[in-house]
């Protein structure tokens, strides 16, 4: 029994005492922490409602040029020379087709002559001015 008592005494003392702690591990130096990646902010783009096509222009109105008979809003320039050759730059969308056809006769009539030749380029035929046509009119000799 003395042995049992001795054993109990050792166990009792062992419970009162803290066990010897092992030395705490020293943390290894780590690589510096990488900076946090910047937050990507995606802007939201408002969606525009569909746009309706523009309405067709109304029939041309307004003052008419006295030399050509074309609406003044459609006329860009009228040039001529002493031999009664004319060059007319105009916007066909801003005048009547009938007025375009009658313009060469009206130009030559104002000069007291008849039309010898007249030609108009096709819309978009290599024009440097979109929407603009050129008419070349040659009147007959006096």
From TrEMBL:
Keywords from the named record: Signal
Entry-linked PROSITE patterns: PROKAR_LIPOPROTEIN (PS51257)
Signal peptide residues on this chain, from the entry's feature table: 1-22
Name of protein: Uncharacterized protein
Organism: Paracoccus aerius
């Amino acid at each position: 029994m003395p042995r049992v008592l001795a054993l109990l005494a050792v166990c009792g003392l062992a419970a009162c005492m803290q066990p010897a702690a092992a030395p705490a591990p020293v943390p290894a130096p780590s690589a510096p922490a990488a900076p946090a990646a910047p937050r990507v902010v995606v802007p939201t783009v408002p969606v525009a409602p569909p746009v309706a096509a523009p309405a067709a222009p109304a029939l041309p109105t307004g003052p008419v040029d006295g030399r050509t008979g074309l609406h003044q809003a459609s006329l860009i320039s009228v040039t001529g020379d002493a031999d009664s050759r004319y060059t007319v730059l105009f916007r066909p969308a801003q005048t009547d087709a009938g007025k375009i056809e009658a313009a060469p006769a009206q130009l030559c009539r104002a000069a007291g002559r008849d039309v010898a030749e007249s030609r108009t380029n096709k819309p978009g035929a290599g024009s440097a001015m979109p929407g603009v046509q050129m008419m070349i009119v040659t009147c007959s000799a006096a």
